[in-house]
Write a structure and sequence with these properties.
Number of helices: 16
Family: Belongs to the bacterial solute-binding protein SsuA/TauA family.
Oligomer: single chain
Number of domains: 2
CATH superfamily of the largest domain: Periplasmic binding protein-like II
Number of strands: 10
CATH architecture of the largest domain: 3-Layer(aba) Sandwich
Largest sheet: 5 strands, mixed
GO cellular component, one term: periplasmic space
Low-confidence stretches: 1-17, 23-38
CATH class of the largest domain: Alpha Beta
Keywords: Signal
CATH topology of the largest domain: D-Maltodextrin-Binding Protein, domain 2
Subcellular location: Periplasm
Strand content: 15-25%
């Protein structure tokens, strides 16, 4: 019986088997390397978020559901802890994109800059804070705050401005009708209230719901429902970055829009499960409660378009609080071309 040509030259069936096994091993080893190479081909984008909150659920959904990766982006999200620090990081190129209140772009512009900060995509469209009372209150009325000690937010920030705006709309003068405390750092406000400071406090979630669950306070009103639509937190970047990285910004905005639509069409339980890894220390029931509350009051924008009416409301709130340095035209600091394009 003649030996097939494939076995000629010393290649016995045993040797061929070893050769084939070696080839398989080489292929198996090369697969992870190929995957690493694909990841390296992703465009890296660093996003600085003003704080880490369930209020920004669509951002985390864009990551957890793979929408950023689908667009060829490797997005690194890191907290920058405060509007001023977020702007500093953005202006110094420490981050590419900032997620922060739109009022910060007005502050920077008013100080004078050749490379203004441009709002290109909106994430939340209402205030995200709630009024928490130390004592249970039946049939709450905003007039109950008169004569009380109110633990508010940092002066000049959106929470504080919206808070005062809402109080004034209910006929309450924040400076005369109550004792207003605003000298406590954002990160310590909840602890101050828990320690006994104030009759009422303005809190973000999930702290407000956690306090309610633990009996430390009672949610009696929503500042988001009271203040109307406003560009509370938006994605923004330097004008030069948007100009030089138009495709990247467009891909980023498209991923955010997909996430906004996903959040709008899924339940609070599904959303909480999707972003669970971002909030490991928050009980699942609290996450679901918070997300359901934000969905119910329309806090999550369903598209990234920041419209002119919202911009006008923002400046009106700033003006009422005495924090608007100058009127800024909508088109000067808002770019909706990309948001409009990806939303079609």
């Amino acid at each position: 019986m003649s030996v097939p040509k494939i076995f000629e030259g010393g290649y016995t069936p045993v040797k061929l088997s070893k050769l084939l096994l070696s080839c398989v091993l080489i292929i198996v080893l090369l697969i992870p390397l190929a995957a690493c190479g694909q990841k390296d081909n992703l465009t890296k984008v660093t996003v600085g978020e003003v704080t880490h909150s369930l209020f920004y659920a669509p951002l985390y959904v864009a990551s957890s559901e793979g929408f950023f990766k689908d667009e060829g982006l490797d997005v690194n999200i890191k907290p920058t802890w405060g509007g001023d620090k977020t702007m500093t990081a953005l202006l110094s190129d420490g981050i590419d994109i900032g997620l922060v209140g739109s009022e910060t772009s007005i502050y920077v512009y008013a100080q004078g800059t050749r490379d203004p900060i441009i709002n290109f995509a909106q994430l939340t469209q209402t205030d995200g804070t709630f009024l928490v009372s130390r004592k249970a209150v039946e049939n709450f009325s905003w007039q109950d705050l008169k004569g009380s000690t109110f633990l508010g937010q940092r002066k000049g920030g959106m929470p504080q401005m919206v808070g005062e705006f809402v109080l004034k709309n209910h006929g309450i003068d924040p400076q005369k009708d109550l004792k207003l405390i605003q000298n406590i750092d954002f990160a310590n406000i909840a602890n101050a209230f828990a320690s006994g400071t104030g009759d009422y406090v303005q809190l973000f979630e999930p702290t407000a719901s956690i306090f309610e669950k633990e009996g430390k306070g009672h949610i009696v009103a929503s500042f988001g429902k009271e203040s109307g639509l406003v560009p509370y937190t938006s994605f923004m970047s330097k004008q030069s970055f948007i100009k030089n990285n138009k495709e990247t910004v467009e891909k980023f905005t498209r991923a955010i829009y997909r996430a906004q639509q996903w959040v709008d069409s899924h339940s609070a339980k599904e959303i909480a499960a999707s972003i669970k890894s971002q909030f490991k220390d928050t009980p699942a029931d609290i996450s679901e409660t918070v997300i359901a509350r934000y969905k119910e009051q329309g806090s999550y924008a369903t598209n990234p378009i920041l419209d002119e009416k919202e911009w006008a409301n923002l400046q009106n709130i700033m003006k009422e609080s005495g924090e608007l340095p100058k009127e800024v035209d909508y088109k000067t600091l808002v770019n909706t071309k990309i948001a409009n394009s990806v939303s079609k």
